[in-house]
C-alpha cells in the first residue's frame, strides 16, 4: 500500500481518536488508546483493537454507526473476481474513470513529491483506478469497514481517524451511496485534506439498490456537485449513459418477475451486449439527465465562497 507505518508495530502512524478532541492514539498492550484522559477510549479496557496488524478505530459508544467492532467483515457478499462477466459486458471500459483517475494522479503529484492519498472504500479496487494503485510516488492509505489486503485501517467514514490537513488527495468511488449521511463524510474529507488538496468522487444516479440495507442515496449531477459545494470544481458530470441504465433495469426487472438471480444476470448480460453499440450515439447532454452515475473532481478551496443555489442551477447542461 505504501502506507506510513510504525516500524515496531506495523500500525499506521498518527491515527487520532473519533472523540471530539481528535486526540492522538497510542499503541498499548491492548490496542490503541486515546491520549485524552477524559475520553471513553483512554484506558486499556476500552482500547481500539488491532487485529492482524490492522487497527479497528470504530466506537459504538461515542458514534452513531452501522459498524460493529466485533463483526469486521463485509456486510454483503462480495466477489473476489472483480467486476465479473456481467460488469465487463455492460460496461467493458470505464473510460471516464480511467481519464479522471489519470488526471487526479497528475494533479496530486504536483502538490508533493510523495503525496498522501486516502482511499475511502479501499476494500476492493475500483474499476479504472490502475494508475492510482500503480504510482509508487503516492503514499496510499486505504480504509473500509471490513478486512482486505488493500485496507490499512478499519473505520466508519463519518468519523475519519486522521488529523486535520493530513492528505493531499482523497479518492471515494462507489462509497457515498452506502453512507447514511454523505454530507458528514464530505465534511470529514474536507477536514483531512490540505489546502488545495484534491478530491475525486463517483456516486450512482440511476441505479437500483445493490447492497440491500446498506444502500441509502442517489445523486443527480447537480445534486452531487452541491454536495461538494465547498470545493472548487475541476470537472464534474455524468458517468456511463442511458444504455447502461437500461441494461441494469432489464436485469432487475427480470429478477423481480422470475425471482431468479441467475436468469436476471443472464438477461443483464444479454441486454448489455445488445445495447453497447448505442453508447457512442448517446449525447453529452443526456449524461446530465439519464446517466448511470455521476462524478466530481475538485480542489479544496481557501479563498472562494461555497457554491450558491443560483450558481448551482446555472451549471445545468442537460436536455431540458
Topology:
Blueprint: E1 25-27, E2 32-34, E3 50-51, E4 54-57, H1 84-90, H2 95-109, E5 116-120, H3 130-134, E6 139-144, E7 153-155, E8 167-173, H4 182-192, E9 193-204, H5 221-227, E10 231-239, H6 242-258, H7 261-275, H8 286-289, E11 293-300, H9 309-313
Parallel strand pairs: 4-7, 5-6, 5-8, 6-7, 8-9
Antiparallel strand pairs: 1-2, 3-4, 9-11, 10-11
Based on secondary structure, the structural category is alpha/beta
- Note the total helix count: 9
Span between termini: 45 Å
Taken as a percent bin, the fraction of beta residues is 15-25%
What about the largest sheet?
A: 9 strands, mixed
| Global morphology | globular
Neighbour order of strands in the largest sheet = 3-4-7-6-5-8-9-11-10
Specify the CATH homologous superfamily of the largest domain.
Vaccinia Virus protein VP39
Helix-strand topology string: EEEEHHEHEEEHEHEHHHEH
Helix content bin: 25-40%
Radius of gyration: 20 Å
Low-confidence stretches: none
The CATH class of the largest domain is Alpha Beta
What's the domain count?
2
Record field, number of beta strands? 11
Mind telling me which CATH architecture of the largest domain this is?
A: 3-Layer(aba) Sandwich
Amino acid at each position: 500500500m505504501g502506507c506510513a507505518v510504525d516500524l515496531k508495530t506495523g500500525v499506521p502512524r498518527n491515527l487520532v481518536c473519533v472523540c471530539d478532541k481528535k486526540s492522538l492514539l497510542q499503541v498499548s498492550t491492548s490496542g490503541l488508546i486515546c491520549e485524552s484522559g477524559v475520553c471513553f477510549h483512554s484506558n486499556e479496557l476500552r482500547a481500539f483493537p488491532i487485529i492482524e496488524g490492522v487497527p479497528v478505530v470504530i466506537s459504538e459508544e461515542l458514534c452513531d454507526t452501522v459498524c460493529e467492532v466485533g463483526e469486521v467483515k463485509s456486510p454483503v457478499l462480495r466477489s473476489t473476481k472483480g467486476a465479473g462477466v456481467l460488469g465487463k459486458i455492460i460496461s467493458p471500459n470505464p473510460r471516464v474513470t480511467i481519464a479522471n483517475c489519470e488526471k487526479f494522479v497528475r494533479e496530486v503529484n504536483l502538490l508533493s513529491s510523495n503525496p498522501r492519498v486516502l482511499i475511502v472504500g479501499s476494500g476492493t479496487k475500483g474499476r479504472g483506478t490502475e494508475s492510482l494503485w500503480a504510482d509508487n510516488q503516492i503514499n496510499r492509505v486505504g480504509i473500509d469497514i471490513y478486512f482486505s489486503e488493500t485496507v490499512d485501517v478499519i473505520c466508519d467514514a463519518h468519523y475519519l481517524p486522521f488529523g486535520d490537513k493530513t492528505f493531499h488527495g482523497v479518492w471515494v468511488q462507489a462509497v457515498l451511496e452506502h453512507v447514511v449521511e454523505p454530507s458528514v463524510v464530505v465534511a470529514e474529507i474536507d477536514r483531512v485534506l490540505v489546502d488545495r488538496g484534491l478530491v475525486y468522487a463517483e456516486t450512482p444516479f440511476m441505479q437500483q439498490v445493490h447492497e440491500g440495507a446498506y444502500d441509502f442515496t442517489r445523486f443527480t449531477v447537480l445534486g452531487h456537485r452541491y454536495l461538494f459545494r465547498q470545493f472548487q470544481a475541476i470537472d464534474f458530470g455524468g458517468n456511463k449513459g442511458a444504455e447502461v441504465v437500461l441494461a441494469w433495469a432489464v436485469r432487475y426487472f427480470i429478477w423481480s418477475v422470475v425471482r431468479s438471480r441467475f436468469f436476471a444476470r443472464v438477461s443483464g448480460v444479454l441486454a448489455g451486449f445488445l445495447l453497447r453499440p448505442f453508447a457512442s450515439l448517446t449525447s453529452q447532454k443526456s449524461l446530465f439527465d439519464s446517466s448511470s452515475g455521476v462524478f466530481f473532481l475538485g480542489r479544496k478551496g481557501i479563498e472562494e465562497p461555497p457554491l450558491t443555489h443560483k450558481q448551482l442551477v446555472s451549471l445545468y447542461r442537460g436536455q431540458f
